Automatic annotation (TrEMBL):
Domain of life of the organism encoding this protein: Bacteria
Protein name listed in UniProt: Beta-methylmalyl-CoA/L-malyl-CoA lyase
The protein's required cofactors: Mg(2+)
UniProt keyword terms in alphabetical order: Lyase, Magnesium, Metal-binding
PANTHER family noted in UniProt: CITRATE LYASE SUBUNIT BETA, LYASE BETA SUBUNIT, PUTATIVE (AFU_ORTHOLOGUE AFUA_4G13030)-RELATED
A GO BP entry: oxaloacetate metabolic process
Gene3D superfamilies: Phosphoenolpyruvate-binding domains
GO molecular function: lyase activity; magnesium ion binding
Upper taxonomic lineage: Bacteria, Bacillati, Actinomycetota, Actinomycetes, Kitasatosporales
Binding site residues for Mg(2+): E156, D183
Annotated residues for binding of substrate: R91, E156
Domain HpcH/HpaI aldolase/citrate lyase: 33-194
Amino acid sequence: MRSAKDFFRPLAVGAPAPLREVPFRPSRMIHFFDPGNEKMAAKVPALVSEVDVLLGNLEDAVAADRKEAARAGLVKTARATDFGGTQLWTRINSLDSPWALDDLVTLVTEIGDRLDVVMVPKVEGPQDIHYVDRLLAQLEAKAALTRPILVHAILETAAGVTAVEEIAAASPRMQGISLGPADLAADRRMKTTRVGGGHPGYLVREDPGGRAPRATYQQDLWHYTLARMVDACAAHGILPYYGPFGDIQDTTACEDQFRNAFLLGCVGAWSLHPVQIGIARRVFSPAPQEVAWARRVIAAMGDGTGAVMIDGKMQDDATYKQCRVVAELADALAA
Ligand code: GLV
Ligand code: MG
């Protein structure tokens, strides 16, 4: 079987960008904007200090007759903005659309030096990542870029879910994977009509205990897929994300969805509206009391082996490792 490295072969001609060791960069909120919408694009400079990632969206939510304006708007905004430490990502159109090739050629040629990550929608298998990977290698070499552009896949087709491990391993460029609940729901023929979050009909009812009406509890529609995606990402050293939450007004449900994803292992989510930026920052940063507890366990565990009791709770090598995850994330976010 071919390994991911086989797909990152240097080009025969030109000087391909070397693959860097990807340093940790916060990406708690991937904030979407429509670069063809002048009002929205004008707000980008003010958002730079508010978010970890700004993403110029070219795909869904940009109408077919505005695709070129969005692409041109992204080039203009990227050139005019000082992003500082904030990452610039784009979501290109899907590989079966008439726009994806032009998206890649234009963006890498014009603003490849500013672009950190290309998000690829509707990924169905490793072949989609290989295609983008090889194209990027050519375009980077042509533009004499000195660092590679990374790739992020959206998991939003049933075929993609069944191939998620291979997608995660498809290239050393792979930065991460986001769950795309809206397209995934349609592709799976689920009976929802919303962008992410739960559904009041997807519930369990408490056992009958008497005459009073039985309480119902909404279940998480995305638990299985998210958990499967987190495993694939963790096994291949890339980052998992929850995607969009479309009910902008329901900040409580948004926070619940983001928190479930964080606790399961995700490092961030998309923000579709400024109100979701603060939610993502809060949820995807470990709480100070959790960090303090983690540091206490780490200190008590010495070299990380053996067992100790703290406040009546048994700690051992495995809790030490969990605590290091929390403490190291807090340190990385504070750096
Ligand atoms: C995101 O693209 C989704 O389909 O949920
Ligand atoms: Mg989608």
